[in-house]
Amino acid sequence: MSLRSDEGVELLIHIGLETVALKGRGFTPLVTPGTRVLRGDPLIRFDLDAVALAAASLITPIVVTNSDGFTITRRIVDRAVGACEELMALVPVAPVQRRWSDDGTVVAQTVTLRLPHGIHARPAARLAECARAFEGDVHLVLGDKRGNARSPVALLALGTRLGDNVTIEARGNDAERALAATVALLETDMGEGASGAAPAPMAATLLEPGQIGGVIASPGLAMGPVVRIDRAAIAVQREGKGVEVEREALGKARASVAGHIAARAASGSTQVAAVMTAHLALLDDPGLASAADARIAEGASAGFAWRGAVHDQIDALRATGNAHLAERIDDLIDIERQVLGVLTGARADAEDAPPGAILVADDLLPSQLVTLAESRPAGLCLARGGPTSHVAILCAGMGLPALVAMGDALDAATPGVTLLLDAETGCATVAPCDTESVAFAARIATRNARRDAARASATDRCHTADGMRIELFANLGSVEDARAAAAQGAEGSGLVRSEFLFLGRDSAPSEDEQHAAYQGIADALPGLPVIVRLLDIGGDKPAAYLPFAVEENPALGQRGIRVGLAHPDLLDTQLRAILRVQPVGQCRIMLPMVASVGEIVAVRTIVDRLRGELGIAERVEIGVMVETPAAAITADLLAVQADFLSIGTNDLSQYVLAMDRGNPAVAAQVDPLHPAVLRMIAETCRRGNGAGRWVGVCGGLASDPLAVPILIGLGATELSVVPGFVAEAKAIVRALTLKQAQAHAHAALDCSSAGEVRALVRAFAETIR
């Protein structure tokens, strides 16, 4: 049966598979060709039993036969569809237009934006990254505004909103491919519709005397003394000391800030990494660089030129009248201050605050919050700001209760006074009376008691409900992470990201510096195994002091252990630093991006030589990360030389699916719950366990509560997760029997898509709560 809508959508509905052979038996049409039908009108009746007995299946495909003209924007994939319920939504695909100009053919296509807040910093950074992958020029056009897609700031200045019709124009030899990639990216919400956004704003309840209302940026309760955070002005000289001098100074300052931001991105949480990546894109914006250079050419100092260039863009953002984009101004101010701080020697971030304080400010910059978070404040109150700002997103990721947009009334919160921060109802109480303080403290105590109960059980060894031993480790990037993991009951570290020592600096860390860091982590986890991943740089994690030749596809070039083997002095230094950690053997060694047995043999030979030089008699365990299909399918061969195998699901997913997780056009589709990835994990566990080696998972999938039962069912006996998830992961494991987990994993392997798997895991989670 075929249908054609007024908008031109053509649908084919085929009831059952291989039912054509029935020649209409069992079917009674209720409409004739040309009949106009409305929602709810019956189209056909059929004898369910008769058709079921004669057909191969009752699956009913509904096909958009002219799919080249329409895009499915949403559809039901994980449950049954009710009567008269929307099955899917379609939007017309704008045709590609071509025109000729003096500088070549221009191809263009119009897209309706699906980004909830328009093109703000994170989507702008992804679009710029996409555009830079092509030789041709790509521009976005909205009304009379036009922005270079390589410039995140120019894209912000467009002032786009959800539902805007934006035209993408491309010219150059690869214009068609550039246009297609940009359109594909803009036809999604880039993950900003759900997990990419900060919590939705919530209005305050009716206020009592002494209370100040605000918008909830990050939920929670906090009580403590007020510490005021002020943003000191940074003075710069107007006149420069010569064009070349100022250009060199600005270049060095930007490079220094870029290294600092990259280091924060590498060692921080997912939220910190996302914000820092956006800041790197702004810092590298070609429009800002050229505007500053023009001012320097006119005689301005590097600082004065940089400030002027940034504030021109800030003025452009303000001119859009878009409140959400106004929140992005803070990101520009942040990179402005960081560069000026390097140029002038002034401190650009915030001073330290005592632990347990309530931070109060007119507004706060992302870099200030990242610095202040190291002091472990209890909460944050801002007079300005918004619930979708990067500060709000960072607070949510840190679990830091926060209220924003509290207005001038927050001036009443003077330094040292007690403040009750209620980021559940949306208000704060300044200078509470004893009764209010006692009641609020009781609320916090109740919440903490529940958390403490979970932590108390988390310190116990982890087993499934039927006694299967599962080790719960933590992924670490610093000594601070190790301490947090220990407090959560982690049974060791399954992944120490040693690159946190190597990135954002001009030279590699010395042996003593590395040893001190590894020893600090080992001391924070006394008596527990600590698995240090050897330096994993290259591809998306470059280091200035290790120049790489230009690679057409860095993801398939010098990465992981290949870099170490290509730089033996660097590898020797790191291995010696690890081997020196006391007690000997607590620190184990893990090789990243392994693809062959020969790589393990080469490293073990080096380790044995260094053990001899250091007088170490004990054997030190060496394991491998399974991040390539080659490693997964030869896990049994690798296990002959390796003492353990740990699956890195992030890279494994991109290599199995042949989709670069750093490519904005396809990154959203790199789902580690794809059946192909799960089958690779299953094969690794089968082959590795069969060879007598334990197999763990240290990639991001291990920290997904919905994925834990599948990983256990597939045969993983060790999970290494983010520190804050250790207690919850143990609780999930204890609620499972191995038989349940195996049956669940088997069902997941039989799914045909990541969407089906996610529907399955959501349903399973309800059965074990």
List keywords for this structure.
single chain; 769 residues; alpha/beta; eight-stranded mixed beta sheet; eight-stranded parallel barrel; 26 helices; globular
Please provide a written account of the structure.
- The protein has 769 residues and is α/β, with parallel strands linked by helices.
- Helix content is 40%, strand content 17%.
- The chain contains 26 helices and 28 strands.
- The strands form six sheets. An eight-stranded mixed β-sheet has the order 13-20-19-15-16-17-18-14. An eight-stranded parallel barrel has the order 21-22-23-24-25-26-27-28, surrounded by eight helices. The protein has a five-stranded antiparallel β-sheet with strand order 8-9-12-10-11.
- Strand 10 and strand 11 (145-148) form a beta hairpin.
Structure summarized in a few sentences:
This protein has 769 residues and is an alpha/beta fold. The protein has 26 helices and 28 strands.
Write the layout of secondary structure elements.
Elements: E1 2-4, E2 10-13, E3 27-29, E4 44-46, H1 48-54, E5 62-64, E6 70-75, E7 88-92, E8 97-101, E9 104-112, H2 121-131, E10 137-142, E11 145-148, H3 152-156, E12 165-171, H4 175-186, E13 211-213, E14 215-218, E15 221-228, H5 243-267, H6 270-283, H7 286-297, H8 302-319, H9 323-327, H10 329-344, E16 358-361, H11 366-373, E17 379-382, H12 390-398, E18 402-404, E19 418-422, E20 427-430, H13 434-458, E21 471-476, H14 479-487, E22 493-497, H15 511-524, E23 530-533, H16 561-566, H17 568-579, E24 587-591, H18 597-614, E25 622-626, H19 629-633, H20 635-641, E26 644-647, H21 649-657, H22 675-690, E27 694-697, H23 708-714, E28 718-721, H24 726-734, H25 738-749, H26 754-767
Parallel strand pairs: 15-16, 16-17, 17-18, 21-22, 21-28, 22-23, 23-24, 24-25, 25-26, 26-27, 27-28
Antiparallel strand pairs: 1-2, 2-5, 3-4, 6-7, 8-9, 9-12, 10-11, 10-12, 13-20, 14-18, 15-19, 19-20
